[in-house]
Amino acid sequence: MTGRLHPSRDLTVVVPTRDRPDRLAACLDAIERLDPPPREVVVVDSGSSGPGATAPAHGRATVLRCERPGASRARNAGWRAASGSLVGFVDDDVRVAPSWAAALCAPFADERVAFVTGAVVGGEALAGAAAGDRPVAVTDDVRAGPIDRGALGNVGASASLAVRRSALEAVGGFDELLGAGARFRSAEDIDLFDRLLVGGIGWHAPEAVAHHDQWRSRRELLALELAYGSGYGVRLAKVLRADPARGRALAQYEARRLVGDVAHDLRGRYAFGVVSRVAWAAAALQGWASGRRVAVRDGHLHLP
Q1: How far apart, in Å, are the Cα atoms of 181 and each of 18, 105, 166, 250?
Q2: pTM surpassing 0.85?
């Protein structure tokens, strides 16, 4: 065991953003209310375009800019600029609770813990969102406590996450071909967890709460499911290459989960749910096929 790590001394919070200044402002307002506050806040503008889209200065936040879009590229730029020994990550459409930083830092008292995920819960349904649809990008069903390589289901997300800076350095951070704005549009967080779990453990702290606003229309939700499926398929191809037994277990788990979810939506006559889950599965198969053709070096994807 090591001493307790403290947000004000040890935690840098990194917020990637692109073309969402209004949501970013709400996110940063919530970070301003953290108690205790973090050591520093780094906002990384991921190639925003158009008048007023570039992230403005806000409170005590430092603003960096990446000329090329990509959430993983932005997160990597953020943690590399950080001075804290712990790096927290939140998305620009997430609002953290005041106790979020303290709750994320506490499990790092165990030196084996490489990363800690918090709970992402459904936030406010904003104008234009599809009424009655299930919340998107939430992780409120994850079991509290340690995470190891035996975990097959949801263990958290980069919308509410803290990682030791030394662990990020050891694995080279996020894979920049995965995630929003990249060639493969998601799964950058679970891919990072896969690599971090080789040399350490994770921890899920449900008391570290972040609220993810529900602002997408059904068209946007379907596009997100396609992105999630594609990224998951690429991540699965990476795991199958590095650890075939674990890859097969992951594939079997997701197949069972998908069948159960589709059956649940059919019983509930939730037609959009069925369509979105089938779209996810089709995109996952396509992502898996694409991932098999991409080179992997040092745990990261490399295009020719």
Answers
A1: 9, 29, 26, 25
A2: yes
Q: DSSP class of residue 107?
A: G
pLDDT digits (tens, 9 = 90+) for 33-87: 999 999 999 999 988 886 555 556 667 789 999 989 999 999 999 999 999 999 9
- pLDDT, tens digit, for every residue of 147-203? 999 999 999 999 999 999 999 999 999 999 999 999 999 999 999 999 999 989 999
- Residues 206, 117 contacting (CB under 8 angstroms): no
Question: CA 13, CA 87: separation in Å to the nearest integer?
Answer: 6
Residue 88, strand partner residues: 13, 162
d(CA 184, CA 178): 5
DSSP 8-class letter at 48: -
Which residues are bridge partners to 46 per DSSP? 66
Residues 126-151 pLDDT 10s: 656 666 788 888 888 899 999 999 99
Give the residue among 137, 120, 119 at the shortest CA–CA distance from 216.
Answer: 137
- The length of the chain, given as a count of residues: 304
Given a contact cutoff of 8 angstroms between Cβ atoms, the answer to whether 265 and 276 are in contact is no
> Which residues, other chains included, contact 49 with Cβ-Cβ below 8 Å and sequence gap of 6+?
19
Question: How far from chain centre, in Å, is Cα 292?
Answer: 23
What whole-number distance in Å separates Cα of residue 89 and Cα of residue 120?
12
